[in-house]
Design brief:
The structure is a single chain. By secondary structure, the chain is an alpha+beta fold. The chain folds into two domains: 79-230 and 251-263, Penicillin-binding protein 2a (Domain 2) (Alpha-Beta Complex); 280-304 and 335-617, Beta-lactamase (3-Layer(aba) Sandwich), CATH 3.40.710.10. 33% of the residues lie in helices and 20% in strands. Strands 2, 3, 6, 7, 9, 17 and 18 form a seven-stranded mixed β-sheet that branches. Strands 11-10-22-21-20 form a five-stranded antiparallel β-sheet, sandwiched between helices. β21 (554-567) and β22 form a beta hairpin. α13 (389-395) packs across α19 (511-527). The N and C termini lie far apart (157 Å).
Length: 627
């Protein structure tokens, strides 16, 4: 506006006159304000350009990351069942209780009509009795901690329910329950060495749980299972507390997997095997024992028991007793002794160095390179004299076996041991298998003693599962089978969706040789050292073994006893092996300690499979003679 000034007129009709004047300059402060507004506007425009144009894509991605989460699909670990579908291992909910000390200050409790802060002692007194912990000890453990503390793990549903009720009633924010799928083994220790166990994170640590980790876990860890197709996990919307918004969850987020791992194990046979094994171990105060039953057509193991064992549901209670977790039938070596004699006879027959009717002269005691080798019964019966091959096996003659295997050149003998798989792995689908041990070929060929002791099953070592595999060659028309405990992965209808890869059977002996050896092994049961395991009405091949245990520089007085049965003869279907380590007693032999175990299992198989007797007349009681 213009400034106005008023002047008086000197005349009669004078009126005040408005005279325009020049406006004053704007105040400097106002200019400064306008300048700041302009600068702020320009800065805002620049910021908008920066956010909406230059970094728009980056900010959009950050927002998406904050509002979504890549959800790793949770599917419970797959079930394990036996050959008949009986459940052996399942995933059950277990709970972990956590304590948050930083949230304790928010908790309040009404005490005698007054509200006060919840103390550490209150928390301990409330949750201690529920979780089975001493409140005073719990206070000491929780005092002074700053971060989240695990109070208790593996809590069952009943305990978790009590803690939920406590948390709700007391309105506690300082304690939290987290649900986890935990492995539960329905048979406790019955199949511990086969199944193994999982740790608290749910990862397999032994047995099938370890060797088939990538098959049992529906969402396997790519670091452990690199050959598994890479999983693509869906993105889900979450709220400000990190919870999934159900309305925006993609289809199939919580998928269900009903596949199951089917074992070859027969639960009934496994239970009987453990029972008779424990009885014999207790009777002879033995250190340990192992029993296995294998099908001769497939290599499937219907039973695999080792004692002593452990409870996989309580694996954490065995600190300092790590030997219990070891499946010694797969991982520990021993010298087989006389149960290996049928394998050597098969080699001698296959190479044409003997015939079934070949006669050997048995002196009962011989000297090989200044080392005396004698039959076990030499002090009682002396020299047996002339024996055919079946009689050598039936009497379990050490001297006779030395004479038989001397007919082979050392190099050929050694080559056949390698061809049969001595010194190798059996290939069983369980972890931690140890390969057998065979002396270097140079030492074997040069040393006459090595050749002699190998003839009757000493001087080399193998595992019980490898011994079972070797006997399986004789039972399967000369073929090497791979023993295994897993049959397939199936869906809920029983249809096979995955079959483990296995080596095909490998022919190493002629069927004729295998039949000839089985016929000789039948004589062991009928007239030889295996008569205690004879089953009236049935015929099968057997062989006892009682070997001294090797020590540094020689052999000790400790024994390892064994018995193998190949049932029936002819046309065998099963191989059963029992090995008992360090039985005590003057009467502790393969025929007395191990043979009764094999007999009990074969008798149960006869009933289970309804196998008719070959000689039914032996089952009919003979009439007593008239007086």
């Amino acid at each position: 506006m213009f400034g106005l000034s008023r002047k008086r007129s000197l005349g009669r009709n004078a009126f005040p006159t408005l005279v325009p004047t020049a406006p004053p300059s704007p105040p400097r402060r106002l200019v400064l304000v306008w300048l700041l507004l302009v600068i702020a506007g320009l800065a805002l425009m620049a910021r908008l350009v920066y956010l909406q144009v230059l970094v728009a894509a980056e900010l959009t991605e950050k927002a998406r990351m904050q509002q979504t989460r890549q959800y790793r699909t949770f599917v419970a670990r797959r079930r394990i069942v036996d050959r008949h579908g009986s459940t052996l291992a399942i995933a059950v909910p277990k709970y972990t209780l956590y304590f948050y000390p930083t949230l304790l200050r928010k908790d309040r409790v009404t005490d005698k009509g007054r509200e006060r802060p919840v103390t550490l002692e209150d928390i301990a007194n409330w949750i201690g009795p529920v979780t089975g912990q001493n409140p005073k000890a719990l206070v000491e453990r929780l005092r002074g901690v700053t971060g989240r503390v695990t109070v208790a793990e593996l809590l069952p549903e009943t305990t978790a329910g009590q803690l939920r009720e406590l948390r709700t009633q007391r309105q506690l924010s300082s304690i939290e329950l987290e649900e986890r799928a935990h492995r539960y083994y329905l048979q406790d220790d019955l199949l511990a060495q086969v199944l193994g166990y999982t740790d608290v994170s749910g990862r397999g640590q032994a047995g099938v749980e370890l060797s088939y980790e990538c098959l049992l876990n529906p969402v396997p860890d790519p670091k452990i299972c690199p050959d598994t197709p890479r999983q693509v996990f869906p993105s889900v919307l979450i709220n400000n507390q990190g919870k999934i918004l159900p309305a925006y969850a993609p289809p199939g987020l919580l998928s269900v997997d009903n596949k199951r791992l089917v074992l070859t194990i027969d639960l009934r046979l496994q239970r009987l095997g453990r029972k008779v094994l424990r009885e014999q171990m207790q009777r002879y105060n033995a250190k340990r024992g192992a029993v296995m039953v294998m099908e001769t057509r497939t290599g499937e193991l219907q039973a695999l028991i080792t004692e002593p064992s452990y409870n996989p549901n309580r694996f954490f209670e065995y600190a300092g007793r790590q030997e219990l977790f070891k499946n010694w039938a797969v991982s520990d070596l021993y010298e087989p002794g006389s149960t290996f004699k049928p394998v050597n006879i098969a080699i001698a027959l296959e190479t044409g160095n003997i015939e079934p009717n070949t006669v050997i002269y048995d002196e009962g005691l011989i000297t090989v390179s200044d080392r005396q080798i004698a039959n076990v019964d030499f002090d009682q019966v002396g020299a047996p004299g002339s024996l055919n091959i079946a009689q050598v096996l039936a009497r379990s003659s050490n001297v006779g076996m030395v004479h038989i295997m001397r007919r082979l050149s050392p190099a050929i003998f050694y080559g056949w041991l390698e061809r049969m798989g001595v010194g190798e792995y059996s290939g069983i689908d369980l972890p931690a298998e140890t390969s057998g041990m065979l002396k270097p070929q140079e030492e074997f060929v040069i040393s006459r003693v090595e050749q002699a002791v190998t003839a009757f099953g000493q001087g080399f070592s193998l595992t019980p599962i490898q011994m079972l595999q070797l006997q399986g060659i004789l039972a399967s028309d000369g073929k090497v089978l791979v023993p295994h405990v897993v049959r397939a992965l199936t869906d809920e209808t029983g249809e096979e969706v995955f079959l483990p890869e296995r080596l095909p059977p490998r022919q190493v002996l002629s069927p004729q040789t295998a039949v000839q050896v089985l016929t000789m092994m039948q004589a062991v049961v009928e007239t030889g050292t295996g008569q205690s395991a004879r089953i009236p009405g049935y015929r099968y091949g057997g062989k006892t073994g009682t070997a001294q245990k090797a020590e540094a520089g020689g052999y000790s007085d400790k024994k390892i006893t064994s018995y193998v049965g190949i049932f029936p003869v002819p046309n065998p279907r099963y191989v059963v092996l029992a090995v008992i380590d360090e039985p005590i007693g003057d009467d502790a032999f393969g025929s007395t300690v191990a043979a009764p175990i094999v007999k009990a299992l074969l008798e149960d198989i006869i009933v289970r499979d309804r196998i008719p007797p070959t000689f039914p007349e032996e089952l009919t009681p003979k009439p007593e003679p008239a007086p």
